[in-house]
Amino acid sequence: MTSTSSYSYLHKSPQDVLNDIDFQLTLEPALLTKLTEAFLEEINVGLGRYGEDMAMVPSFVTGVPDGSEIGTFLALDLGGTNLRVCEVVLNGDKTFRLRQQKYKVSDQLKTGEASVLFDYLADSVDAFLTTHPPESPTSPISDVPDVLPLGLTFSFPVEQTALGSGTILTWTKGFSAKNAIGNDVVKLLQDAFDRKHMHVKCVALVNDTVGALLSRAYTSGGCMLGAIFGTGTNGAYLEEVAKIPKLANNPAATKGGYMVVNTEWGAFNNTRTHLPSTPFDSALDRTSINPRFQAFEKFISGMYLGEITRHILLSLIDAAPRPMLFGGKVTKVVNDQWGLDTSVMSEVEEAWEMSVTVDTTVAKDVNGVGNIIEIGAEPRSFPGEIGENLLWDGDDHDILPRWDILSTPEGLASLNPKFKGKLERVRKVLVDRLEYADGDVDLRDAAIVRWTCHLVARRAALLSGVAVAAILLQTGRATFIQDGQNGQTVPSTTEEPTSKKVNGANGTHVINVLNKVTGTIKDGLEEKIGVGVDGSLVQFYPHFERTMRESLRSIVGSDAESRVEIGLAKDGSGVGAALCALQALKQGF
């Protein structure tokens, strides 16, 4: 599907056009604060009622692991063309061993009888256990010694009513298995296990974002927020059950304590009354498969950033009376809807930042913390900021292109060699990835495209910071910067004791909620706030985390931001699902 731009720049100078785009995509701190206030409103509406856009789905997970747990747990991840079976062995020292195998799901299985589909899922688990016999026979906290507990990641709409129970609402992603909708997905799977007399028990139904939180909690010793910033975006956090009014008639409400809530924050402000929408955002939304839905996700996730950028570039290509980009020429990549992938933006920014020429040979080195750096493939490490590259020069400033300088030989000659070299590297990426002829892309084009990519990605990272800040505020770990002393949380005189009891397998499972998990101030000391993240943007897009932290500082202040400890939460749908099975056993499933 091709698309055309409908933006008119007829009465503006080229520089005014660039200035206008820059203005539309630049977010001021005051706007970030207002967006956070609106975010908080939707959080509390969703906690109070079912059926809201920002659904605030209770997970019925009432605690998080601390890394001391041991045992063997299975995970089954169904969400598309393949299903995945994982075995996770918890070592009890914040480390684990993972074995996994993928199995293809045919179209016949997707559209046939549900019993046949779930029998296939059980067969796949059985095949995995045959080829990968468990390293240890069971979990030590399981009541039945020879039964393996399993967590199911089921990436389809369900109404979850308990940790190990959820009704299938509808199928998506090409699935339409008969006699499944309206039934409990956990029971369907367990019945299939039982038909085959397998010693496997499905004890938990898992969302991958909840799994990300649990995964990070296990490897770091504590975590209060799991967040996905990748193809899509979502967050799950630990909330007081007393703050979830819609659970009033559920047995979980009488137990109190804490529960992990899946926010579904990609649907924040679907009405677009607060989000800083531009004509480019409106064009993307209008031509998407779900107009007026997942509004927040369309501003910040990897699935959409390339398309927003493409709309901006098209507007400059089609500018009248004279084109402002690529001499008015388009390629299939630029002209086709979804043709420009967000990975191209990342490559453009990497080319701008690269301070040395990278050898194309692969040389591996392992640093002191065990991270592998591969020169020539993905030369990345994690020395501080997630995704930080040792070869970047840190120059990611928002450089508004100067049309007068970039449009004349004299102006180009006045550029310093380093700046010129950066533009030349970007130019080569555009020729390669946008499929232009070498002569169709000049340094001015390179400067404009790099600036556009930076604007779109920076806005996404700043808005991502809004979501994280809102969770810190909702859970009392920070205050708005104007309400407290530089954003530092002021302990309440009515604050509950520092040790909270969370219902578990043997009556109660004690976790140090206000210290290890929540990270609020205890005895005058500032505790760290654990945040686990996953997704291609936060892992690989240059300086995504740094910009997100800039947003946090502008909303809750530098003191609160400095206490936020962001770390990778690996494999929420696999490892996280196995850890959810662990939590189910702790809670006495």
Account of the 3D structure:
Keywords: ATP-binding, Glycolysis, Kinase, Nucleotide-binding, Transferase. Its EC number is 2.7.1.-. InterPro entries: ATPase_NBD, Hexokinase, Hexokinase_C, Hexokinase_N. This is Phosphotransferase. Belongs to the hexokinase family. The protein has 589 residues and is of the alpha/beta class. Helix content is 39%, strand content 17%. It is built from 21 helices and 17 strands. The strands form 5 sheets. The chain has a 6-stranded mixed sheet with strand order 1-11-10-9-16-17, sandwiched between helices. Strand 2 and strand 3 form a beta hairpin. The longest helix has 32 residues.
Name the features.
five-stranded mixed beta sheet; alpha/beta; Hexokinase; 589 residues; six-stranded mixed beta sheet; Hexokinase_N; 39% helix
Brief summary of the model shown:
Belongs to the hexokinase family. The protein is α/β, with parallel strands linked by helices and 589 residues long.
- Calculate the mean pLDDT score and round it: 84
- Contiguous uncertain segments of 5+ residues: 356-383, 484-525
User: What is the helix fraction of residues, given as a range?
Assistant: 25-40%
The count of β-strands is: 17
Biggest sheet: strand arrangement: 1-11-10-9-16-17
Keywords: ATP-binding, Glycolysis, Kinase, Nucleotide-binding, Transferase
Pfam families: Hexokinase_1 (PF00349), Hexokinase_2 (PF03727)
Domain Hexokinase N-terminal: 20-218
InterPro entries: ATPase_NBD, Hexokinase, Hexokinase_C, Hexokinase_N
